[in-house]
């Protein structure tokens, strides 16, 4: 075999992921909080980028104003409530993104200084005097971490006068309490662990029981309970003795809690020798108790959702617009850009030129993200106008390919746009993926959204008779009468997804 070099010419197609395209895709799939962090990192690392504040625009000199484009009055798209007469004109309703993010073509050679010495080095401000008329606005809880159940119990334990021996027992019991407020270990095991450590004076089980009974009076009522029955009895014992039906409630919890859990009211009436109206009052008292007292203490910080798109109805038309608060407006710093010289290859000039190019790419990627997000949200609102007008029962089946065809994009792009992006509507805040659902066939040959079926099931359960709740088979039959073909196991799956208990657990006395 002869080894020799040769030259061959071939034609082919390949997809090249340029840095600009990679950046645009990465920004597209970021959530609102991640996008704000990304923009802040870009502002910190790139001196050519700056935020375009309104006060800066007003204080700019006439020469600078001539080289800066102002943002459009609104970036919105209108939809027509009548779907049959909806006419979507992209040129008319589409967003106009020629805003402050656009790079000016010509920059002045010399710009006035926008800061003075006094703006940077200011004298220390005088301490503010407190006005007694002003309220503190919850000063104690401001910027304080959330309190856990253990912190709450330890605070009460530190205020309780106990001997050193009882303090050790109390801390051992406190270590065995879970987030619900229940003891995770039997008292005997806790006693065995403490008895091994006490060599001089033997520890008795009665001492542990005595400390436990004292800790069971802590707030919230029901903590340090062994099980559900013990938790409910602790709360009943802390009620005033003159509470109506207190003795009957103790009787039911002590001897017939299993019948109560199975909702076997016939056996419960016969064994407790209570009448139906009496049992109804007893159950009202029991249902007012908290089976998980630890949930009263807030353990986590609330998660706030910032909507990316706002939908509102104006003059009979659904209006879609981007939330202007999700990200700051950024632009190129004209002062630094004016320092760039064309025929200079010095290190400083090369650095400024590279940073200017990266700033242009970043602003363009943000513009592309906003345009794509607004376009997809507009098509979703156009398709789901029935939901906005009438609720979940009017939701239409929708899949990613439907929106992808309307906006002429790939399904993967639609998936990135609708992930962790939220829409604020008059009916609440929903993730964009919420508007996508599978379908179920109807007798008339049409399709019904699974979200609409869930809403129908929830409506039927809410209107059922408490004495005789609807079974999954009965719900499937009632949906079949409305022309929706759905199996019993499908109803059970949707019911469990909505955290609705089965019919035997929904049964109760009126």
TrEMBL record:
Species the sequence originates in: Marinobacter aromaticivorans
Which PANTHER family would you find in this protein's record? RNA POLYMERASE SIGMA-54 FACTOR
Q: Where is this region: Disordered?
A: 52-112, 125-147
Where do the RNA polymerase sigma factor 54 DNA-binding domain residues begin and end?
350-508
Record's protein name: RNA polymerase sigma-54 factor
- Give the family, as the similarity comment puts it: Belongs to the sigma-54 factor family.
Function, please? Sigma factors are initiation factors that promote the attachment of RNA polymerase to specific initiation sites and are then released.
InterPro entries associated with the record: RNA_pol_sigma_54, RNA_pol_sigma_54_core-bd, RNA_pol_sigma_54_DNA-bd, RpoN_core-bd_sf
Keyword Metal-binding listed? The answer is no
**Keywords per UniProt:** DNA-binding, DNA-directed RNA polymerase, Nucleotidyltransferase, Sigma factor, Transcription, Transcription regulation, Transferase
Source organism superkingdom: Bacteria
